[in-house]
Amino acid sequence: MSQTKPYRVSHLDALEAESIFVMREVMAEFERPVLLFSGGKDSIVMLRLAEKAFAPARVPFPVMHVDTGHNFPEVLEYRDSRVAELGLNLVIASVQEAIDSGTVRELPDGTRNRIQTPVLLAAVEKYRFDALFGGARRDEEKARAKERMFSFRDEFGQWDPKNQRPELWSLYNGRHHPGESIRVFPLSNWTELDVWHYIAKEQIPLPSIYYAHEREVVERAGMFYAVNEFIVPKAGETVETRTVRYRTVGDASQTAAVLSEADTVDKVIDEVAATRITERGATRGDDKVSEAAMEDRKREGYF
Amino acid sequence: MSQAVVEPEAPPARQMDLLRFATAGSVDDGKSTLIGRLLFDTKSLFSDQLEAVEAVSAARGDEYTNLALLTDGLRAEREQGITIDVAYRYFATPRRKFIIADTPGHIQYTRNMVTGASTADLALILVDARKGLVEQSRRHAFLTSLLRVPHLVLCVNKMDLVGWDKAVYDKIADEFTSFAAKLDITDLTIIPVSALEGDNIATRSEKSPWYEGPSLLHHLEHVHIASDRNLVDVRFPVQYVIRPQSTTVTDYRGYAGQVASGVLKPGDEVLVLPSGLTSKIAAIDTADGPVDEAFPPMSVTVRLTDEIDISRGDMICRPHNAPAVAQDVEAMICWMDETAPLRVGTKYTIKHTTRTARAVVRGLQYRLDVNTLHRDEGAPELGLNEIGRVRLRTTIPLLADEYRRNRTTGGFILIDESTNRTVGAGMIIEAS
Ligand SMILES: Nc1nc2c(ncn2[C@@H]2O[C@H](COP(=O)(O)OP(=O)(O)O)[C@@H](O)[C@H]2O)c(=O)[nH]1
Ligand SMILES: [Mg+2]
């Protein structure tokens, strides 16, 4: 914690202190917490906060990756090296396995965002996780703006936005009956820019795809998708090599890159500060379905 | 001549501070519009958000882009044109990062105002200039003082609809000032605005030459909040004990927590409650290394020189400045549950700092009419959104201060033991 003048606390220090407080509350009050770790930048920051919250002890809970099977190899590599470095226990909830064993069905359009929810819920049940840390931020989306720091889920993992527990001071109510659980969002009050400032301040390494690099892409509805095993150019689409970076890392079949020359954290910060399009608007095909796409998915148990 | 040097652009500010504020007002006074305007004027709005709002606005036949749609995030809200729940919004200027808790004005949602106000540095109340002060305005001012939000701003909105008439503004301002005087509100600022047209929001408007105060944004950026913190009374509620099970770090025992108030330093003599044992601070650790002092709202890990038994829910303070160790608590309670009222004799779970206990309601002294401030001493119960003075007895002692002195060690919540819902918010008046 750096202070420029006595008793001064910068916004990043205040956000960090709040997130650490939340993580310690969970560790003190729950039996089986787990941290959702996808190798995306928000979950990377969250894991860093967990590391800081319990130092010099190890992060005292496992991490879980809900693996859609549609991954960027750089991200998987990052995930595994970070897990090894911190000596963590990694739980993988695999959508592919669930499809293979017939517990969920592949959608006709091949997207896996929606079908990862039952896979997540099955893992929660199997491991009896009672608190799940998620890296969602309220600035991401308008349904998320209404989410609590401690968000109650019933035994079906459902969110009821009209029936949320009031959250006062820093007194978080994590009480639940067996089978119910709490989603915990330590980054609730962070914005995309805060996350990047923190990555710079803490010098947190990220998967390389977050920085500008050349890639073969196709343009669809104004968004640039990397050509890979999941995204095959359709007739009439031209493959071009562009300099791009990823603002979010989700399902590789649905996450688009943005054109960017920002190859360092400081350049990314400048870009994020100047950008006029939301993170999800710029990169996620899945949120564009309807005005209430996110609200609907969250009600079903999505993060 | 030397080669021209291109000055690098100033890096984005990383040393902003943080201001949390809650907005309140009756339905249609223009809260959502005002927030939309603040976001718009500080360039915190994204073009895709704006496009989405424009499209929905056009589809509904609105005459202008309805900025309120930006904050109304749930389907039911958009369909009914109302705000159901507290929504959090973020924007920043080079000086400050702001967190807005947008709380709905409907009477049945007063608990949301209390929720938003509990963590707010500042409360922003709106009134419609045409309507003047209404029941809700007084209620919101009262709640602001009850929750001890240090700064209050009254925005007299829709000034465009009263032709920017100074007399209209003066009447509302006078009436509100005298009401606020009864409430022990320490810092009040009143600003005439048009949220819709953006007057006196980001910059001062030419339409109100008679108004000499700051624009709303200027005030939000400059209001002095650093001294709102209590830096006098050392209160460190222990959250979690860190004891690494490792071969490299041995014999480490640290008490993790967030400083509620006061300043802690290595070498300070401390008193640990409820045990009453004393010790000294050996070190204050963070993951970035030890620090010379810790103050609110830092999250740190304190080590003591003596091996004493300390666990979650204990409090580290100073020998001559300690909270009450109390099982009998007098408090104002705001009731938040629609399914059952607060009744004398009922038991609840109580959460106070990092301590959890059970509490029984021993008495209900009065229920307060938040509009007239009349005390009804015969009230049998507190229903949803009602506020009253209550006497509680707890199973184990709380380590408590008066709420007016310390918002962290003076506030608590009550939880229904069967439904697990958060049913009440309490502010301690006296603990013994
Ligand atoms: N003329 C005028 N109309 C306003 C102003 N502020 C808000 N409104 C309108 O008042 C109505 C209610 O506003 P809204 O922001 O939804 O109010 P809320 O219920 O407090 O969130 C909308 O039709 C707004 O366009 C203002 O300053 N001037
Ligand atoms: Mg509204």
From TrEMBL, chain A:
Its EC number is 2.7.7.4. InterPro entries: PAPS_reduct_dom, Rossmann-like_a/b/a_fold, SO4_adenylTrfase_ssu, Sulfate_adenylyltrnsfr_sub2. Residues 33-256 form the Phosphoadenosine phosphosulphate reductase domain. Keywords: ATP-binding, Nucleotide-binding, Nucleotidyltransferase, Transferase. GO terms for biological process: sulfate assimilation. Pfam families: PAPS_reduct (PF01507). Residues 281-303 are annotated as: Disordered. It comes from the Bacteria. GO terms for molecular function: ATP binding; sulfate adenylyltransferase (ATP) activity. This is Sulfate adenylyltransferase subunit 2.
UniProtKB/TrEMBL annotation, chain B:
GO terms for biological process: sulfur compound metabolic process. Keywords: ATP-binding, GTP-binding, Nucleotide-binding, Nucleotidyltransferase, Transferase. Its EC number is 2.7.7.4. The keyword Oxidoreductase does not apply. InterPro entries: CysN_GTP-bd, CysN_II, CysN_NoDQ_III, G_TR_CS, GTP-eEF1A_C, P-loop_NTPase, SO4_adenylTrfase_lsu, T_Tr_GTP-bd_dom. Residues 16-229 form the Tr-type G domain. This is sulfate adenylyltransferase. It comes from Winogradskya consettensis.
